Structure to design on (277 residues):
């Protein structure tokens, strides 16, 4: 068995209606009149109101209605970057990578704070196998917002794929030091555990993967953690521990996603508190 690098790349959260409420600057060669300013503002507000309806549909798991609302917003105001971003994120989640990248490209033309867009376009490029393009996007996101969790972890996972565990560990360390509770950075603990194993720090690798195992919040996280901890324990010569992890992996793998419940340690807070990073 060899270590298995996670491939479920993190996507930035969709923007809320509140974060979309800033009007973009519109260029007028001669300068806008007061009436034109009012008309532009009214048009932009109508577009954001329509995006808000899309959010309501999305929260109600009515994806098609949400997409229709976001596209309608663009017919009202083609310069609303968040509508392109939201459509692109839905397309990305659906596996429509070309469509997603096209929407993110459009969003980048209008957004003044595009770190989330770069991250999600990077995730789409990575799924296409474009490692260089993905790394460029994750770097751009981190240049704009140092310590941004999703692209930091994604870049670390790419560096593991490039067989550069020392650089990968630095990315995961950055994420982990920015959070007080392990549950806030499960993927970073798994990634750092893999990096440590590749750097021959087997005790540290097992410690990270054990922490991730205790705080995992989903079937994919659980399976990835157990698989890699079994490999690390095997490398350490702990045949019994490796076998136990493989047995639990097999049991969980065959269960439907919704049937698995995860219980956190009693020491954990109900709502993890982020540290200053």
């Amino acid at each position: 068995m060899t270590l298995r690098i996670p491939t479920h790349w993190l996507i930035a959260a969709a923007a809320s209606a509140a974060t979309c409420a800033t009007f973009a600057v519109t260029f007028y060669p001669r300068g806008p009149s007061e009436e034109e300013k009012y008309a532009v503002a009214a048009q932009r507000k109508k577009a954001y109101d329509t995006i808000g309806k899309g959010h309501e549909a999305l929260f109600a798991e009515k994806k098609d209605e949400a997409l229709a609302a976001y596209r309608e917003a663009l017919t009202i105001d083609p310069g609303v970057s968040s509508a392109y971003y939201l459509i692109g994120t839905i397309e990305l989640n659906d596996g429509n990578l070309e469509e997603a990248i096209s929407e993110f490209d459009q969003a980048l033309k209008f957004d003044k704070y595009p770190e989330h867009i770069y991250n999600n376009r990077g995730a789409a490029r990575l799924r296409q196998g474009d490692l260089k393009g993905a790394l460029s996007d994750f770097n751009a996101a981190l240049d704009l917002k140092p310590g941004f969790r999703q692209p930091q972890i994604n870049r670390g996972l790419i560096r593991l794929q490039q067989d550069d565990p020392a650089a990968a560990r630095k990315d995961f360390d950055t994420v982990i030091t920015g959070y007080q509770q392990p549950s806030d950075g499960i993927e970073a603990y798994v990634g750092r555990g893999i990096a440590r194993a590749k750097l021959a720090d087997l005790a540290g690798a097992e410690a990270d993967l054990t922490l991730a195992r205790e705080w995992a919040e989903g079937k994919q996280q659980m399976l990835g953690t157990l698989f890699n901890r079994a490999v690390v324990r095997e490398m350490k010569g702990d045949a019994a521990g490796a076998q136990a992890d493989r047995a639990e992996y097999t049991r969980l793998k065959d269960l439907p996603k919704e049937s698995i419940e995860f219980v956190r340690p009693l020491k954990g807070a109900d709502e993890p508190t982020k540290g200053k990073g």
Summary: The chain is about 65% helix and 0% strand. The domain at 163-277 is CATH 1.25.40.10 (Serine Threonine Protein Phosphatase 5, Tetratricopeptide repeat).
